[in-house]
Design a protein that fits this description.
It contains 3 helices and 13 strands, in the order H-E-E-E-H-H-E-E-E-E-E-E-E-E-E-E. The N and C termini lie far apart (about 95 Å).
């Protein structure tokens, strides 16, 4: 009899322990997945040309008064050498009529180099703004974000903005002053602002990360005031918050630089970025954005 009572108590304890377990075999925690193909990517860039350091000024659409400076005589002696109405050219010092005078020489044409090493330091800031997307959760799905749980069935709306800043060393070569091929690498930082909205619920957070990047850039210069370029970068970053673990991000871009002056340019094109982040104890993030990019470029 005592053996039967012991068995009953053991069975009751086992069943009670199973009753305390929360079975989530049929529930699935989903990641934050959002994509937008119409986001804007404004920004500002600066490049410092280390090699080659040419003494010739860079070209631009607007010369900022250079023609006026070149046409103004630098000294009275220069002004005296200019011909004036009523004065014969043979009376000018060094005229062609004087056999002993040096003959003027034509300016030497710029020779294109087959191969020219190049090194520059690039600074870049971009903001992927106005990203938005929506998705539906099924009954068995839920999402954890910023300490809040969204249970399905539910309609989720995502709004996000990504800020990316980088400094890069870009080295490579130019061929015939027309084609440039470069490798680049340096440091990057990012800040993703993401909000999740559902009927009666909202959660938002900003994840900041820091790390390194590398990539390549190709440039085609059909005219001295125009550059066509393509670029790709891979960013490997670490989150600066306690629950933000790692960020894997790649960015690519095609566009054109139009040089307005020697130091000031504008750029425009199309940019893509893919942002993936691992979050400890919550849903991971997989966010994409593509769209037009535009901004200012400073050359030094």
């Amino acid at each position: 009899m005592n053996r039967e009572i012991a068995r009953a108590l053991a069975l009751a304890s086992v069943l009670g322990s199973f009753g305390c377990i929360n079975f989530n075999f049929f529930e699935d925690r989903i990641d934050v997945k959002a994509g937008d193909k119409q986001g804007l990517n404004p920004g500002v860039s600066a490049t410092w040309q280390v090699l080659p350091r040419s003494q010739e000024p860079r070209q631009g659409l607007f010369r900022m008064g250079e023609d006026v400076q070149q046409s103004t005589p630098s000294s009275p002696a220069d002004a005296s050498n200019r011909t004036t109405p009523g004065r014969d050219a043979t009376e000018v010092d060094g005229a062609a009529g004087d056999p002993a005078a040096p003959k003027p020489t034509a300016p030497e044409a710029h020779e294109r180099s087959w191969f020219q090493p190049s090194l520059s330091i690039d600074f870049d800031y971009r903001a992927g703004v106005a990203g938005s997307d929506a998705r539906s959760m099924d009954d068995e799905e839920y999402l954890d974000y910023d300490g809040q749980r969204f249970l399905g069935p539910e309609q989720l709306d995502y709004d996000y903005t990504l800020h990316v800043g980088s400094v890069s060393a870009r080295g490579g070569a130019r061929f015939l002053d027309v084609v440039g091929l470069y490798m680049l690498g340096g440091l990057s930082t990012s800040a993703l602002q993401l909000e999740v909205d559902a009927p009666g619920e909202r959660a938002g957070d900003t994840g900041v990360s820091l790390g390194a990047h590398w990539g390549w850039r190709a440039v085609l210069t059909p005219h001295p005031v125009l550059d066509l370029y393509g670029q790709w970068q891979l960013h490997l970053l670490a989150g600066l918050s306690s629950n933000r673990e790692s960020v894997f991000m790649n960015t690519s871009e095609v566009g054109a630089n139009v040089h307005l002056t020697q130091t000031f340019s504008v750029f425009g094109g199309w940019r893509w970025w893919d942002y993936e982040e691992v979050v400890d104890g919550e849903s991971d993030l997989d966010v994409d954005l593509s769209g037009p990019t535009f901004g200012l470029l400073f050359r030094f």
